[in-house]
Amino acid sequence: MNVASERSFRTAPTEATTFYARIFGRRGVVASHHYFSSAAGIDALKAGGNAIDAAVAATLVEGLLNPNMHTIGGECPILIAPAGSGEVICINGNMVAPARATPEAFRALGHEVVPAEGILAAGVPGAFGALIVAAQRYGRLSFADLSARALDLARTGFPVHAGLIRQHKFGIADNREKFLAQWPGSAALYLRDGALPAEGSAMTNPAFAGMIDYLVSAETAAGGTREQGLQAVFDAFYKGDVAAQMVAFSDEKGGLLTRADFAAFEVPVEAPVSIDYAGARVHKTSAWTQGPALLQTLSILKSFDLPALGHNSADYVHLVVEAMKLAFADREQYYADTRQVSVPVEALLSDAYGALRAGLVDMRHASAEMRPGDPVEDVALLAASQRRPLTNWGAGTVHVDTMDEEGNACAFTPSGAWIKSAEVMPALGFPLGNRLSNFHMGPSNHPNVVAPGKRPRTTISPTLVTVDGRPTIACGSMGGDQQDQWQVQFLLNRLVFGMPVQAAIEAPKFSSEHFPGFFAPHDFFPSRLRIEARFGDAVLESLAARGHELSVGPDWTEGFLLAAERHADGMLEAGCDPRGSKSEVFPASAQAW
Question: Is the whole-model pTM more than 0.70?
Fold first, then answer.
């Protein structure tokens, strides 16, 4: 990193005491939710792999140990900055709707919205394919090496953690009755004669282990190069016995999936979207996720002197919230599968549009309106012939960040196929996802209406930051609609206020529920602001006086972030959020080598 980059990435001279110690490494760092996942990533590095291998190995373990937050039947958007390339690559690990998924098909089955759980919410899972494509293109290790830790844990057993049992809505306890009454595959795997497993007791997943064995065998039988072996693994999952088992389960339960849906599945490798902010370039996945809303928020904030307002002052919080509300109104208005819908992403992220949106912020009053803009009309960036009419449409995720000494950096955000949302397939040891519930059923011109082969827009959204083309920060979070709101605050803490990574993670957080949620039934609560009590009475009272409807939560309940950073001298740092440990249900881990 050159001198200019060093200046732009300053650290505050007085560093706040943090709950977790700062963690540094020279050869590699891994930040993830489970300590076994982080350990798997470090093992991959020690076996000769790079940061991409580490992230893939860690994610495979996460999908086994944290099924309350992610399994391999879900999705995984990925950002990778390959060492020395000066580029950031996006791998689109989203699910794909079956060819039979139409509004008419769901209505014929008696549904006015896509069900929030069960087999009708399932599409072709994207997470596994995204991991294989990442490893094939940018990694070094074989699938046998990458899956070794997950296979061992599935076969010999792993300790059940508190979150798997007690996480609100997502854990085994809150879903026990449903397992017993409706989902025998889930009951057989996660209950002990109908009772909850004890924290710390050993849990195995023989079906998952058998699937990994089958995929490793496919790799071995392929011979040839490492890349050819990984292609054989991809094909075995999407065209072989694994696909056959998923379709058979779907047929048995009345789902929409077919073998043709799986055979047609591919993983797009795309360019991310990005803007310059505070001496850095912030990269996000495109508008098939909510990622550009983070960039839109930063674009709006360019018009304001944030340090002059004071970190986490009432003025600062109010401004950031109002900027997020404007950005997320555009999320609802425009965002969709960018491979099927023309989303004006470039116009939405332009400085001119950000400045216009900034002019809507009233520092004295919180807006109670949903205010999507029109970047085409307002800034005249596109020809009239390119316009399309639009109307105003009235916590279960993990994250993995890795970096290595060569200069590679990764941000993976695996999510979906939670055990609360679908039955475990007995033959495979994991459930299918429910991301189709992110779709709308109408009106017909809504950008996110369900359609065959379409990818639903999704909340899961990793972040990579570069300075002068060199990857410097990788970060992400769990939290549904809150993910990019929390990441905005982390980036402001780090880039604008100079907080070290761990302090930037642990700082008090807030989030808005002012806009429709991504998940059915797409509820929203105008003016509601969720905020930790740590902000103090004076700030809370000032925000309430401006019209924010406060939902004040206990300390350490807004955030759940993970991050990694490469410093100017090459030293690597990883940070994880103590909020999980304090709530006793979200394990988080950062390890270094």
Answer: yes
